[in-house]
From TrEMBL:
Assigned keywords, A-Z: DNA-binding
Alphabetized SUPFAM superfamilies for the sequence: Putative DNA-binding domain (SSF46955)
One Pfam family recorded for the sequence: MerR
PANTHER family assigned: HTH MERR-TYPE DOMAIN-CONTAINING PROTEIN, REDOX-CYCLING DRUG-SENSING TRANSCRIPTIONAL ACTIVATOR SOXR
Source organism per UniProt: Micromonospora zamorensis
Source organism phylogeny: Bacteria, Bacillati, Actinomycetota, Actinomycetes, Micromonosporales
Coiled coil: none
Positions of the HTH merR-type domain: 1-70
Domain of life: Bacteria
Gene3D superfamilies the UniProt entry points to: 1.10.1660.10
Name listed for the protein in its UniProt record: MerR family transcriptional regulator
Length: 260
């Protein structure tokens, strides 16, 4: 007859695990002997080894008792069901690992790799970290609304970064937003560049991602996000209106005032 410690050691589990199996009714708890100790026989050792083997294989404790009592066909069916569940769980965990790996750079949170690559390009042309983070948050809003369109849109966005005017714009905005001057004179330069780029896009018939969709909410959210990120965006939008353009993410040409 074995003590609880000897039983646990022989079966390769902890004493705490044996007591837990007693508490949930998985392993019968013997009566105490005259000395006040519980003693375990060979049957208990065999039962505990079976329990440990099933538990180590991933069988939930709640199902082990039923499996120990099942006949061969029922046992095999239960094993197949558990195997299917484990296969699904492994796939879920592998997906989670891929997502975790993508998050190591920080930019991949809620974003596809194409946008992360675009943000890296922004850093490469001299955009500040604050500017990159503002772009990242805007793309999170876009990707949440149109996840299947990102691959289509990103090549054009990346190509725009070869334009010296776009590079200058990001550098100027980075300098402005990294500073603390409320009415920075460089806001006028940024507005001039933005108006010029808007004119070029308008003449070429270009459109911004999502502009063709009948859905104003993402654009409204991006506009609001810009102001929340830096209130000086309001002044920049005023300067854009003076140059004939309204909006922020989705620029629209204002009607020209009547002559006279």
């Amino acid at each position: 007859m074995l003590t609880i410690g000897q039983l646990a050691a022989y079966a390769g589990v902890t004493v705490r695990a044996v007591r837990h199996y007693h508490q949930i009714g998985l392993l019968p708890e013997p009566e105490r002997d005259a000395s006040g100790y519980r003693r375990y026989g060979a049957t208990a050792v065999v039962s505990l080894i079976k329990i440990r083997t099933l538990a180590d294989a991933g069988v939930p404790l709640s199902q082990i008792s039923r499996m120990l009592e099942a006949d061969a066909s029922a046992f095999a069916e239960a094993i197949r069901t558990i195997d299917d569940h484990l296969r699904d769980e492994i796939q879920r965990l592998e997906t989670s690992r891929r997502h975790i790996a993508q998050l190591t750079a920080g930019d991949s949170l809620a974003l596809p790799p194409e946008v992360a690559a675009y943000l890296d390009r922004l850093r490469g042309i001299g955009a500040s970290q604050r500017m990159v983070e503002a772009e990242r948050d805007g793309w999170i809003l876009v990707a949440a609304r149109w996840p299947d369109r990102i691959v289509e849109w990103m090549p054009g966005k990346i190509a725009h970064l070869d334009d010296p005017q776009v590079v200058r714009l990001y550098r100027v905005l980075s300098e402005i937003f990294d500073g603390d001057e409320e009415d920075d004179p460089r806001l006028a330069e940024a507005a001039d560049i933005m108006a010029c780029l808007a004119e070029q896009a308008y003449a070429a018939g270009e459109d911004i991602p999502g502009a063709e969709a009948d859905d104003d909410l993402p654009h409204d959210l991006i506009d609001a996000l810009a102001v929340e990120s830096d209130p000086r965006v309001r002044r920049l939008r005023e300067l854009m209106r003076e140059r004939g353009w309204s909006g922020w993410n989705r620029m629209e040409r204002l009607p020209k005032p009547p002559p006279g």
